[in-house]
Structure formats: structure tokens, C-alpha cells
């Protein structure tokens, strides 16, 4: 059956992030951006609003972080010190998009670089920050080129640099390309890397809001989060909340999508509350011919698998959380019937084990251990107790058991795959091991493991 991609008419009222995008996918440069109400929100903020008023506006709008955590952006901003003597402050944009299966920020930076520049300008004014850094994934070459050109254009137009729009506010914006570490998605590891240090997470407290980059107050926000700010300033709280009215408690829109062996993989700007089934079937076109749907991850490699029974859930933070997973980046991955869960999870755990910074023992040693067991199961050489050991590792690497959230996120796909597809893991245990265990008097699996490892 031939699939015809659904036509989407992007409008300023319903698609604040993407309505300016060109059909040919070329970047929107400053003249075109300004002709489409670009920098209107920035001018309104800088010329007519107090900094605290902007912070409260963003808080009242209900903007949540779009990097995966879903924390209130306005509340995060309000944690910055009020003391006027703290005259050096930094705004950092987390553009180190290394979550497997996620590519939403790349689209914004490559096609709408001025939207990010404007979002950072407004945010910096609200936070009284004189310098901003875009910490960019090093492999995003085109995004780096486009962002640097946008910064040059904005500087030439008097929208960056000294005395912006004649308001006396100064703001310098710099693109900093990273060296390729997934752990830099954790904000304090990002700060360490920016400073030229090893990308290890920092102990908290102190939190970045009080002592971040170079010991100064620092706020770190995701690309998509910052790109929401201009429209909120331009249109207000009621409009922003109304986009998803009746569909979700979360406000605004979200870049959502599906990858995997679907007919039309991609990313679309949709209101919170749109169901996963609607995205999969109407936008992504469903599974390719000859394949059937098996499972999905709602928002990146570090989220729990869900099944077809969960496809009618609204795509928002609360609904996906209640189902036992996380919305994450909201770019879902579809798993089809031809893909085995053991090799799939083994591939994910290899990535997470490789990207561990090695700072804490549970993560450094526990993730490679899970990979060894999964490889044995994949070869059909598993032993009794392997699955139980994997489950124990998931508990020992869970929230609160490690220095940062890397390991808890890494074991989410593992624990959920065992939960929903345990029989595939059991199939990897060699039959002779069961016979051997019975022959030697029911030896406990843990003792077998001690001999093995």
C-alpha cells in the first residue's frame, strides 16, 4: 500500500517553532526572519519589560524544559541570584544532542538559527547575563556554520553586542563545539567541558544557578526550550496555554516524531496531548509493508520501552510517566517484529557503557557487566540467574544510586525489555545449563555466576 505523507499547514498560532521554516529546508536568514515577526518578542522584552516580569511570564506560561527532564523553565530562571553585585552571569544553551534517535534540535539550529539567537537574547536579558554559549555537538557541522552566520547577522543589525536596541544591555553570544561525549548532556558535565576540564558531573550543591561556569551564576537550557521563549513574549500566556487546551495539562507545542522502520520517519511540531498512535499512523505512516509493530521508546534511547497497548496515550510528561516510562525528547523509536529485544538492548547498553564518564563505580562497572551478560544471551550461552542478575543491576543503577542520571537512564530500556519480553531473554539461556544445575544438586544461580565471572 502506498503511503501519502500528511500535508501540514504550519501557522503562527499553532506552530510557533516551525511556521517560518521554508519548504526547501534552507536556513531562514535575518531579513526573512524579521519579515516574519522575527525579533518582535526581543524588542518587546528589552524595551518594555523588567527582567523579573519576563521570568514570571515564562513561569506563568508553563514552559517546561524540552531536553527531557521537563522542569519548569521559569522556576529554574528564578533560582538565579537576585543580588545585583553578582554582575557576571552566564547563559548556556545545551545543544549537545547525542541522545540516540533524537534530532529535533538539529533541525531548529540548521533551519531556524535566528530563533535560537532571539530566544537566548530574551533569556539573557531576563537573567541579566552578559555572555552566552551555545554548547554544540561537534558533529553538527552545518548547524555550527549556520549559527555563526546568524550571530554575525544579528550583531551587524545591533541585536547582539553592545547597547542592544539602544537599551544599554550588552550580550555576547559564542558557539562552542564539544569533543563528543554523551555525558555533556548533564549540565554540570557540560560546564566542566566548557571550562576545558574533563566532562565529569559535579557534586551538587552548589547548583549552577549559584556557582556554575567559572564559579559564576549560570543557567543551562535546551535548544528547543529557548526557542519557545520569543513566541511567549510576543503572544502571551493565555495563547501559549491554549495551544494544547483540552489535550494536556502541559502548555504549548513539542517537537515530536517517530524513527525506526516506519514509512515516513521524521519530526513534527504538535500540541502536547497528541497521541502516540496519531503520530505513528498519520504522520509517520505506520510500519513499512510486511512489518508489524512490536514496541516503542517514547523519547530517546534512555527511556523505558512501551508496547502497542500504550499507543493511545497522550504524548505529555504525566501520561507517559504514569505508564512507566518518560516523555524524554518525545522523538519515539518504533520496534518491529523482526527485531530481537536482546540484541537491541545490548546495542543500547554498549553505547551507554562506552559513554559513562567512569566517575562512580556502579555506572563504570555495572553497565559493562550488563553488556557481557547480554552478549552471552545473544549468543545463546546464557546461564541460569543471568536475567535475575540483570534485574539486580537495574535496581543497583537506579535513581539515587549513582552520581548522576546517566546510569538510571541507561538501565531503563533494559528493565522494561525484561518486563515485557522476558521470554526473549530466557531463550538465550543454553538448555545444558539447566540440566547441569539440576545434576549438581540445584546449585544457586549466584554461585554459578561467581564461577563464570
- What pattern of helices and strands is seen along the backbone? HHHHEHHEHEEHEHHEEHEEHEHHHHHHH
Helical content class: 40-55%
Q: Please count the beta strands (DSSP E, at least 2 residues each).
A: 10
Query: Which shape, going by the Cα principal axes?
Result: globular
Instruction: Assess the beta-strand content as a share of residues.
Output: 5-15%
> What kind of oligomer do you see?
single chain
CATH structural fold name of the largest domain: Rossmann fold
Taking pLDDT < 50 over at least 5 consecutive residues as the criterion, the unreliable ranges are 437-453
Radius of gyration: 24 Å
Largest sheet strand order:
3-4-2-1-5
The overall pLDDT, averaged over residues, is 91
Second CATH tier, the architecture of the largest domain? 3-Layer(aba) Sandwich
Tally of contiguous helical segments: 19
Counted up, domains total 3
User: What structural category arises from helix and sheet content?
Assistant: alpha/beta
Distance between the termini: 51 Å
**Fourth-level CATH superfamily of the largest domain:** NADH-ubiquinone oxidoreductase 51kDa subunit
What's the CATH class label of the largest domain?
Answer: Alpha Beta
- Main sheet makeup: 5 strands, mixed
Descriptive notes:
The chain has 453 residues and is of the alpha/beta class. The protein has three domains: 30-241, Rossmann fold; 243-336, Ubiquitin-like (UB roll) (Roll); 341-452, NADH-ubiquinone oxidoreductase 51kDa subunit, iron-sulphur binding domain (de novo design (two linked rop proteins)). 43% of the residues lie in helices and 13% in strands. It contains 19 helices and ten strands. The strands form two sheets. The protein has a five-stranded mixed beta sheet. It has a five-stranded mixed beta sheet with strand order 7-6-10-8-9, sandwiched between helices. A hairpin with an 8-residue loop joins β8 and β9 (306-307). α6 (113-127) crosses α9 and α15 packs antiparallel against α16. The chain is globular, with a radius of gyration of 24 Å. The N and C termini lie far apart (51 Å). Residues 437-453 have low confidence and may be disordered.
Amino acid at each position: 500500500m502506498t503511503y501519502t505523507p500528511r500535508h501540514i499547514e504550519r501557522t503562527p498560532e499553532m506552530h510557533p517553532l516551525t511556521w517560518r521554516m521554508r519548504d526547501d529546508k534552507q536556513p531562514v536568514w535575518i531579513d526573512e526572519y524579521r519579515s516574519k515577526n522575527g525579533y518582535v518578542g526581543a524588542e518587546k522584552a528589552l524595551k518594555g519589560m523588567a527582567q523579573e516580569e519576563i521570568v514570571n511570564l515564562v513561569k506563568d506560561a508553563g514552559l517546561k524544559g524540552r531536553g527531557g527532564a521537563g522542569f519548569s523553565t521559569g522556576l529554574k530562571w528564578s533560582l538565579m541570584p537576585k543580588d545585583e553585585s553578582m554582575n557576571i552571569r552566564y547563559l548556556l544553551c545545551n545543544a549537545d544532542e547525542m541522545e540516540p534517535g533524537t534530532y529535533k534540535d538539529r533541525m531548529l539550529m540548521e533551519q531556524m538559527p535566528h530563533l535560537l539567537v532571539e530566544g537566548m537574547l530574551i533569556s539573557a536579558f531576563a537573567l541579566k547575563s552578559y555572555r552566552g554559549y551555545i554548547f554544540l555537538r561537534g558533529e553538527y557541522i552545518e548547524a555550527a556554520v549556520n549559527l555563526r552566520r546568524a550571530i554575525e547577522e544579528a550583531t551587524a543589525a545591533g541585536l547582539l553586542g553592545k547597547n542592544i536596541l539602544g537599551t544599554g544591555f550588552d550580550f555576547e553570544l559564542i558557539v562552542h563545539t564539544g569533543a563528543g561525549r554523551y555525558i555533556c548532556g548533564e549540565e554540570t558535565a557540560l560546564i566542566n567541558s566548557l571550562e576545558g576540564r574533563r566532562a565529569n558531573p559535579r557534586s551538587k550543591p552548589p547548583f549552577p544557578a549559584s556557582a556554575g561556569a567559572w564559579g559564576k551564576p549560570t543557567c543551562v537550557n535546551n535548544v528547543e526550550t529557548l526557542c519557545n521563549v520569543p513566541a511567549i513574549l510576543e503572544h502571551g500566556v493565555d495563547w501559549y496555554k491554549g495551544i494544547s487546551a483540552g489535550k494536556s495539562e502541559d502548555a504549548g507545542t513539542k517537537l515530536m516524531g517517530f524513527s525506526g522502520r516506519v514509512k515516513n520517519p521524521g519530526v513534527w511540531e504538535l500540541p502536547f496531548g497528541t497521541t502516540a498512535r496519531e503520530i505513528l499512523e498519520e504522520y509517520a505512516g505506520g510500519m513499512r509493508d510486511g512489518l508489524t509493530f512490536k514496541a516503542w521508546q517514547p523519547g530517546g534511547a534512555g527511556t523505558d520501552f512501551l508496547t502497542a497497548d500504550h499507543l493511545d496515550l497522550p504524548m505529555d510528561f504525566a501520561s507517559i510517566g504514569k505508564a512507566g516510562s518518560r516523555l524524554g525528547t518525545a522523538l519515539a523509536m518504533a520496534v518491529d517484529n523482526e527485531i530481537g529485544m536482546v540484541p537491541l538492548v545490548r546495542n543500547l547498553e554498549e553505547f551507554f557503557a562506552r559513554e559513562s564518564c567512569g566517575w562512580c563505580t556502579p555506572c563504570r562497572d555495572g553497565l559493562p557487566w550488563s553488556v557481557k551478560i547480554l552478549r552471552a544471551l545473544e549468543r545463546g550461552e546464557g546461564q541460569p540467574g543471568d536475567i535475575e542478575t540483570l534485574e539486580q543491576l537495574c535496581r543497583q543503577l537506579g535513581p539515587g544510586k549513582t552520581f548522576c542520571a546517566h546510569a538510571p537512564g541507561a538501565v531503563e530500556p533494559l528493565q522494561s525489555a525484561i518486563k515485557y519480553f522476558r521470554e526473549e531473554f530466557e531463550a538465550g539461556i543454553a538448555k545444558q545449563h539447566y540440566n547441569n544445575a539440576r545434576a549438581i544438586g540445584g546449585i544457586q544461580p549466584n554461585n554459578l555466576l561467581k564461577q563464570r565471572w
